[in-house]
Amino acid sequence: MSYHRGINNHIRIRRARKTIHLVIVILFFLLLALTYAGVDWLINRSKSNDVTPSDISSTFIRPSTTKLFRTEYFQFQTDNSWSKIPSVSTSTKFVYRSYNGPLVEHQLVVFVNEALPSNFSATRVLPVEVIKGVFKKVAGVSEHCNNAIPKDKWSGPEVVTYRQVTFKCNVDSNEYTVFVGVIGGKWKNRKICISLR
Question: Of the residues 13, 30, 53, which one is the last residue of a structural domain?
Fold first, then answer.
């Protein structure tokens, strides 16, 4: 009987050693993987601190389905259906249109340092504020401005104020014309005025 006990103990000891060796190998590879992940994280963290906003914007690749329009005052990106209309644009008035075949689907007019035409009116307004030279949207596009005027007082374009933006409302129009207005500004003396139809 003692002979079998010795063999059984020897087999148990060999199995225990194999199990210990296997656990040590697994722990070694786990430690190696964690070390690699930690070093990679540190490298990526130091790289992300070196990136400046100008690096990001210069490395952005636009898909070929978009156009980028730039002026000395602003820039914006659209799909390929948009184009600048030089025949009606000037150095202070910029006109862009989106076409669906031969039909004008949308029109964007931007006035810079120019008095607005006396017949300039809109049906909706998008209030914005200027923070560090950038337009920040304050609220969504308003409902039709004729909702702010009783029907018995409709007599052509009326001056309306929505969220501290004063503009000329075209009460009779069914067009979806949006005026982007700076909060606290008046529609007559704008430095930048944007109209989207």
Answer: 53
Look at residue 122 in the predicted model and tell me its pLDDT: 81
Q: In which domain, by residue range, is 36 found? A: 2-53
- The pair of three-digit structure tokens given for residue 140, joined into one six-digit string: 């969504």
Mean of the per-residue pLDDT values of the chain: 77
Cα angle 99, 102, 105 (rounded to 5 degrees) comes to 35
Can you give the pTM of this predicted structure? 0.53
Between 174 and 49, the higher pLDDT residue: 174
Nearest to 180 by CA among 120, 118, 100: 120
**Residue 178 token pair:** 């949006």
Does 148 or 5 have the greater pLDDT score? 148
82/64 Cα distance (integer angstroms): 13
Both 140 and 183 in one domain: the answer is: yes
Do 83 and 41 belong together in one domain? no
Same domain membership, residue 123 and residue 27: no
Q: How far apart are CA 165 and CA 93, in angstroms?
A: 21
